[in-house]
Amino acid sequence: MDASHLLIAAAHTPHLQAQAPGTVTLVGAGPGDPELLTLKAVKALQAASLVLYDHLVSPAVLAFLPPDAERVYVGKESSRHTLPQGDIIELMVRLARSGRAVLRLKGGDGYIFGRGGEEAQALAAQGIPFTVVPGLTAAQGAAASVGIPLTHRDHACSLVLSTGHLRENRQLDMDWDLLARPNQTVVLYMGVNNLPEICRQLVAHGLPADTPAALVEKATLPDERCITGTLAELPSLALRHQVRPPALIMIGSVVSVRAQLMPAATTAATEGDPALHAAA
Hints:
The protein is of the alpha/beta class. It contains 11 helices and 12 strands. It has helices spanning 3-11, 39-46, 59-62, 85-97, 116-125, 138-146, 176-179, 195-204, 234-240, 258-261, 263-272, and strands at 24-28, 50-53, 70-73, 76-77, 80-81, 102-106, 130-133, 158-163, 184-189, 212-217, 225-230, 247-251.
């Protein structure tokens, strides 16, 4: 069903507002591979009658829904939103207040750059009961899939997850000093379109230009790719190999461990291109 039509329909059901609200289940769908769903998430999917789902929820995950479940796409892509976030929250609240049980399905983990916290706050403010089912975030899925540990005693004693997309003021409002610290792994979500500026700023704030770095495109999915190089090389590698979202930027010496953990993938790639280490 079209989300905007459902929002209009929900707005015109005032006679249903007096009954007890339905429960909203906020579910993290993981990075894409359906086998990485939690058991609790699978049970919630199989019991759903109405689901509001995001752009990064894979078709293989949606296959766990009952055939007669009502599916409403509310996905958001860069500069292209089916519904603005405020309208998604309004729709979710109205449906729940009409007495319907709602499954709110998000890629990755809803509380990690999924705006799940905002949605939970809105539900709490309206007195609507809700439960939260965590999901594997993309950084975890990518780490296991492409052989780049997020932490390692010899390489990184801390992990920083951040976003690399433009804010409302069209600026990259990022803590560059924090991101450029040594002995850590940095994973940036939603930053591919701003990769040249991200790399430039990190080098300017003290991170060596030869720091190992990687781009992981469509992590855990069949068409996953991992491209590695140095921080300085990453923008040109992304351009040469036409990397597109969804993709993660992974920075730190842990990236160098991939050659040992995924030797078949890195050897096959470097035979054709010494700058590229890809697993397709």
